[in-house]
């Protein structure tokens, strides 16, 4: 993929390095001269300019990008970049960093955001997940709240132990996307057996989350 990142601070550079290691093409857009340091991520294309300006985005060729990541430390900037990327340049996927949780309500599809990433929320979810085996934990919200990424760890006494994935009586709109087992990441197949301690990740709307929990804990 070709990915544009608005904001070349520590967060933007770290994301760029990870994506480059994954074989993607990355462009970093930075408006502050003191943070314009191409030598820090040499494999990326660097653009010195304001990502909130349509002219900067045009000159950078952002319309050729598959994904735009608004990763600055300013929520107002991230919202504007997201809106421009989606509405003016029809970028297929827009991901935005939320710095202040009080601003999360702004980061919606109406403002061009497909995925909003709030570090405080994710950290809180990770802590909750670590201490709540058997409870359904919401990790991330997609598409203006239309779907969530949720996790549940099967307890030691789970009635599903040894039973195949196909026997989970999931509600219609829920999808099991990954099983984490120790250090393994398993793409679930219908005949794969479940084990106590498995971390199951689902994408589902909020209204069916209680049904997921019931299906997993009651078997």
From TrEMBL:
It comes from the Bacteria. Pfam families: TrkA_C, TrkA_N. Residues 137-218 form the RCK C-terminal domain. Keywords: Ion transport, NAD, Potassium, Potassium transport, Transport. The keyword Translocase does not apply. Residues 1-117 form the RCK N-terminal domain. Transmembrane segments: none annotated. PANTHER family: POTASSIUM CHANNEL PROTEIN 2-RELATED-RELATED (PTHR43833), TRK SYSTEM POTASSIUM UPTAKE PROTEIN TRKA (PTHR43833:SF5). This is Trk system potassium uptake protein TrkA. It comes from Amycolatopsis cynarae.
